[in-house]
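User: Design a sequence. Structure:
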């Protein structure tokens, strides 16, 4: 049987869904994934080297500019059919008294712009800047920033409000992730290489109970042999088809 139909059969009766997403969900919106080189002036830089506290300490201006340019770029992007189908799924499940949570590694807020209401930003957001002295978060700093790095009122700097390699994830995000993964009856991994922890371990965590587990990705990942069905293909094509198969095209 067609994997979409098989997955829809398994998902039709579920009530509490958790979806773990990565850069692959936003790829068709034009947001570069971490596996591809960053476009423009960043193709000379290794993202993993830039997305660290050390990089900000040593090159605060360069790192601030990179994040500010990504903030500008994602605001020019639109949610794609994968984002929109996940928003539809949440609304359909909620109206039937179910739960639907997106645990995203993405920092582009495209899930929220598509209409998902229960989104946990595991790695923060490009739209947030945080004072290095007070920890105060701002989402209203001018775009582009008037200078790189951007001084804060407290005499420090505004750093990107994202989680860098080597930094702990926000406690509330971790708590919410464990809560939803412990209670769900289905977990999906969509558009993530499943290489970066702790998010990479979330499917396995949910599978400690017998939940339905589905993956959608362009390529096999470390999660592929853990799930019930691993579908290879574009999220922008497969996610809408899956949601339609669950609820019927109507
Ligand atoms: C932490 C925000 C405690 C910033 C990001 C050794 C072993 C295990 C762990 C570690 C270790 N050493 C260090 C660690 C911890 C480290 C880690 O996991 N490292 C890895 C590399 C081994 N993790 C951390 O540091 C985390 N914190 O663990 O704290 C701690 C502290 C110190 C030491 C140890 C532990 C913090 C990690 C968060 C880093 N911040 N982003 C920013 O955006 O700039 S990570 C960033 O990269 C993303 O958020 C994401 O998480 C990751 C990339 O993953 P993806 O989203 O999956 O994207 P990727 O490009 O990789 O893949 C895209 C996928 O989509 C591909 O599979 C592709 O096939 C698919 N795709 C593409 N197009 C499509 C598609 N699929 C469908 N349709 C398409 N159209």
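Assistant: Done.
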């Amino acid at each position: 049987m067609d994997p979409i139909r098989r997955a829809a059969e398994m998902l039709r009766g579920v009530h509490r869904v958790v979806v773990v997403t990565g850069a692959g969900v936003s790829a068709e919106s034009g947001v570069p994934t971490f596996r591809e080189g960053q476009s423009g002036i960043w193709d000379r830089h290794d993202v993993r080297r830039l997305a660290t506290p050390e990089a900000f300490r040593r090159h605060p201006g360069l790192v601030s500019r990179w994040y500010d340019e990504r903030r500008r770029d994602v605001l020019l992007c639109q949610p794609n059919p994968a984002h929109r189908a996940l928003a539809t799924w949440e609304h359909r499940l909620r109206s039937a008294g179910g739960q639907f949570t997106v645990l995203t590694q993405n920092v582009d807020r495209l899930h929220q712009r598509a209409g998902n209401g229960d989104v946990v930003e595991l790695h923060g957001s490009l739209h947030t800047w945080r004072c290095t002295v007070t920890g105060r978060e701002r989402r209203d700093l001018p775009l582009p920033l008037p200078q790189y790095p951007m001084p804060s009122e407290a005499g420090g700097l505004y750093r990107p409000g994202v989680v860098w390699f080597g930094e702990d994830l926000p406690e509330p995000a971790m708590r919410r992730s464990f809560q939803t993964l412990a209670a769900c009856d289905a977990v999906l991994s969509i558009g993530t290489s499943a290489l970066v922890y702790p998010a990479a371990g979330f499917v396995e965590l949910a599978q400690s109970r017998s939940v339905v587990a589905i993956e959608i990705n362009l390529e096999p990942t470390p999660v592929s042999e853990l799930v019930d069905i691993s579908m290879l293909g574009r999220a922008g094509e497969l996610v809408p088809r899956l949601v339609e198969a669950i609820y019927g095209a109507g």
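The chain has a mean pLDDT of 94. DSSP finds ten helices and ten strands in the chain.
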